[in-house]
């Protein structure tokens, strides 16, 4: 259901509907609503999970004794792999700096954490 939600989000953005996710995942609408009350709570949950995954990769690849270029290469490879494995990690990186914020409850906190824990360590 999570990867399906990511696919639908990449196709439709905030125009996605819970019914789109249910249809594409081959689930009943009730099953999707059993886990999430609405698309905002689903997106928020997936972005928080994506942030945690991206932060883990950042810490593991940049906090080594390797040369800066080797660390950067490892970081890039691991983040790109995670984008394929967990598409919401890509959505996190793609959408967080858009002029129109994603309408989740903790957007400002997520943006600040992204800057502090994901962007700054790389730069």
Task: Please describe the structure with a list of short key phrases separated by commas or semicolons.
123 residues; mainly alpha; 7 helices; elongated
What does this structure look like?
- The structure is a single chain.
- The protein has helices at residues 2-12, 18-25, 29-35, 39-62, 68-85, 87-95, 107-122.
- It has 123 residues and is mostly helical.
- It has one domain: Tetracycline Repressor, domain 2, CATH 1.10.357.
- The model has no long low-confidence stretch (mean pLDDT 92).
Average pLDDT, rounded to a whole number, is 92
Give the proportion of residues in helices.
over 70%
Radius of gyration: 16 Å
Main sheet: strands, sense, barrel: none
CATH architecture tag: Orthogonal Bundle
CATH class, named Mainly Alpha
Please give the domain count: 1
Residue share in β-strands: under 5%
Please identify which CATH superfamily we are dealing with. Answer: Tetracycline Repressor, domain 2
Order of helices and strands: HHHHHHH
What structural category characterises the helix and strand content?
mainly alpha
Helix tally? 7
State the distance separating the first and last CA atoms. 34 Å
Shape: elongated
Here the CATH topology equals Tetracycline Repressor, domain 2
Number of strands: 0
Which regions contain 5 or more consecutive residues with pLDDT less than 50? none
């Amino acid at each position: 259901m999570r990867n399906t939600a990511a696919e639908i989000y990449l196709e439709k953005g905030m125009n996605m509907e819970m019914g789109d996710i249910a249809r594409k995942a081959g689930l009943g609408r009730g099953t999707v609503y059993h886990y999430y009350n609405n698309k905002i709570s689903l997106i928020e949950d997936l972005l928080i999970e994506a942030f945690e995954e991206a932060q883990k990769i950042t810490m593991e690849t940049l906090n080594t004794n390797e040369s800066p270029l080797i660390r950067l290469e490892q970081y890039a490879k691991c983040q790109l792999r995670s984008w394929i494995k967990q598409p919401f990690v890509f959505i996190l990186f793609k959408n967080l700096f858009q002029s129109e914020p994603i309408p989740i409850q903790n957007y400002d906190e997520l943006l600040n954490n992204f800057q502090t824990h994901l962007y700054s360590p790389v730069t």
